[in-house]
Design a protein that fits this description.
The protein is α/β, with parallel strands linked by helices and 237 residues long. Helices cover 44% and strands 12% of the residues.
Length: 237
Amino acid sequence: MTEKINDRFDDLIAFNGIINGNKVIEKWFPIIECDIFLSHSHKDQDKAIALAGLLYKNFGLKTFIDSTVWGFSDKLLKAIDDKYCMHENQTTYSYEKRNFSTSHVHLMLNSALNKMIDSCEAIFFLNTPNSVSAIDTIKDSTNSPWIFSEIATTQTIRKKTPKRLKQETRTFSSRISLSESVKEQLTVEYELELSHFTKLTLRDIQLWINKAKFSNSNPLDELYSLNQINSKFLIDG
């Protein structure tokens, strides 16, 4: 498996030894056509896949879940680190070189995520204890920098209208899994602004399913009609 990953990466190195960042993004994080971007914690992947299955079964809507579509970014990072960041002893990495390689991979992932968000019409956020924890009784927070980035992007992402309605909204998610063991786990909290999301309960989803069964309209249009044309939805998991 490692050899295949390294082969994929080696194909992206030019004759002069320079990595083509655009080609890495295109090959490792390709943009695919989806209706919904689902922001979630990687610990809730099974719930995310189940929700995506529900939406496809009832509405034919395609949901983007990064971990089921893209190559894992930590494997790309390891391929780069093994080639460029090893000390001469070939057993440990250079701290400075790894910082540099990590910044590049994170930038590639963020670039791809932004494009993916912008290509989707709606965004769903799976609100669970794995993704959001309360700092106090008023504010929400997350320990995931990726979820923080996704939610922040939903506040600023440009809005367009689908051709069918002359009204379209664009959206965003992902994460990098770190496997290195450390003596003390680094934990950082980010406050989340979720007020621009419309809460979607299981009852709302059932109403949406029932209404769509007897309608010839696009299923997302039916959802918008139930929720004041908002395209960002928070689902408690």
